[in-house]
C-alpha cells in the first residue's frame, strides 16, 4: 500500500534548453555483450611490512579475492607483499592487460594513509618516519585507477586499505581516521569501492578474513549479481558484520550498470520471467518490490530472513536488505508480548504460512495462494494479510482492491499489525471501502501501540497532515523519531525532510544530510536523490559532483526517475563527469518511459539538436508537448521556439506567442524576454 509521503520538491524546477545543433556522441550499450571479452584483475595483499606494523589479514583477504575472481572467469595477477618498485611495475603491466578488456579490477589490501588530502597505499618497504619519507616510498592510490581506464564495461578499484593509519602524527600530516574519496582525473572514469567511509577506519577482523573481504567475496559469488547491485549488498553485510561500526563507500558511475559478475548469467527463473529479452535487472527489481511488500509489515523475523535468502539465490535485487536486517534486530529487541511473533507451533496455520512464503519466494504464486488460503481458514492473520497483498498487486490472485480491503480488515481483526496498517490505509484513502479517516487513524494507533515501526511513521504523517487528528508537527516529528528508533526505513528520510524544512523540529541541514545518508544506505531511492542534490549544492557537505552522480545512478537503478534525469543532466552538461550525450539520452529515455517530465524535456532537447540521438524536430515537438502537459515551463518555452522557427511544425507566430505566455505564467523568465522581443507582452 502506498504511504502518504509526497515527493520532495527540491530541484524540481526545470532549466531552459537552447535548441542548437551539436555533434552526436554514440552511447555505451546497456546490455552485456553476447561475446564476452577478457576479464582481468590485479590483486595486491601486503601483510609483512618491514618498517610498519604488520597486518594479520591482508594476505589472506587477497587470496580469498583471488580465488573468488578466478571462479568468475578472471585472469588474475597476484602480488604478495610487493616493494614499491614491484608495485609500480605491476601496475604498468596491468594497464596494458586492461586495455580493451571487458572488465578490469584492482584490489589492494594493506595499510593506507591520507596525507594532505591524498591517499597513499603502503608497499612492504614503505617508510613512515616523515611526510617526505612516506610520500616517497608509498604509491598514490590514483595510480590504481589510471591502470584500468582502458577497460570497457567495468573499471573497478577496491581499496581495503584503511584498517588503521600507521602515520597518525602531526609531524607528517597524517590523519588518524582513514582515507578520503578519490579526486584524481581517473576518479570520473572508474568506480572506487572503499572498505570504509571517508575518515573511517575499517576493521582488520578477528577471524580468517576481514568483514569487508568476507562481504565482498560473498556478494561477488551471488548468482546473477550485477555491478550495480554489488555495492548495496556489501554495504549492508559489512554494517551487519560490524554492528554498524563500518560502512563501505562507493564513488563513480558504471559504464554498464547491468554487467553481471556471474559468467553463467542471471538465474534461469529470472531469465524465464524476462522472456529472454527484457531488462533482467528490472525483472529482479520488480520482483524485489513485490516480495518486500509482502513482508515489510510482518511480525515474524523469518519473513525478513526469507527475503534475504531470496536475494542470496539471485532472484531479487535485495534493495531492502539492510531494512530487513534492521527489522529483525528491532523485533528481537522488543519485550515479550509486543508482537505475536510467529513460530511453527504457536500460531494456527503457521506451517502453511511458511510453506506459502517459500513458494512465493520461488515465484510459485499459485501454491502460495493455496497455502495462505488454507492458513487463513484456520484464523492466521499473517496469511490473511498476504492474501490481501496478492489481491492488491495481482500476483497470485486477480487484482481486486475490494477483496484486498476485506482481507486486510480480517487480518487486522485477527491482531496482525501489517493487516492493521493496510486496513487503515484502505479507510484513509477509500481503497475498496468507504473513506473513514478517523477510523483509519485509530487502526494505525493500535498497530503503533503494538510496536509497529511502520505504523509509527504513518501516525507521524497523520499529525503532519491533520488526517484524522488535529495537525501537530511537533507530535509528528516525535512519532517519526520513534519510528526511526524502532527500525522503520521510510521514516528515516521523512525525519530528514523535517530537519531540512524545520518542520516540527529546529532546522538542521547537517542532521538532515546524515539521516538522508542513513536512509540511502538502507535502500531508500528518494534519499539517494536527496544526497545527490546535497553533494551538488555543497551546502551541508563539501561539493562532490562525482559522488552526486554516484547516488543518482544508484537511485536510477532502483527505478527512481528523478535519479535518472538528474544523472542525465550531469552527463549532458559535463558537470563533474565527461560529457556524454548518448548516455544522457539513455537516462532521459528511461525517465520518459516512466512518464517523467524532465525525461521528456531532456530527451526532446537532445532530439531537437541531434545530440546523442538522431535529429528529429517532429519527435522533439512531441516530447516537449508531453513535458508541457506535465507542467514544465521550459518545455512550454521550447514549444514556442519550435513554432517560431518552424522546426518540426509549421511556423506560427501566434502559437509561439501562446506557448511563450504559458511558459511565462509558469515562471519562465526567458519566456518573458521572448514576449518582449516579439512585442507581445
Description of the molecule:
The structure is a single chain. With 681 residues, the protein is of the alpha/beta class. Among the domains are: 213 residues, 3-Layer(aba) Sandwich (Rossmann fold); 172 residues, Serine Threonine Protein Phosphatase 5, Tetratricopeptide repeat, CATH 1.25.40. The chain is built from 29 helices and nine strands. The strands form two sheets. Strands 2-1-3-7-8-9 form a six-stranded mixed beta sheet, sandwiched between helices. Strands 4-5-6 form a three-stranded antiparallel beta sheet. A hairpin with a 2-residue loop joins β4 and β5. α13 runs antiparallel to α14, α19 packs antiparallel against α20 and α27 runs antiparallel to α28. The two termini are 48 Å apart.
Question: Which descriptors apply to this entry?
Answer:
681 residues, alpha/beta, Rossmann fold, Serine Threonine Protein Phosphatase 5, Tetratricopeptide repeat, six-stranded mixed β-sheet, three-stranded antiparallel β-sheet, 29 helices, globular, disordered N terminus
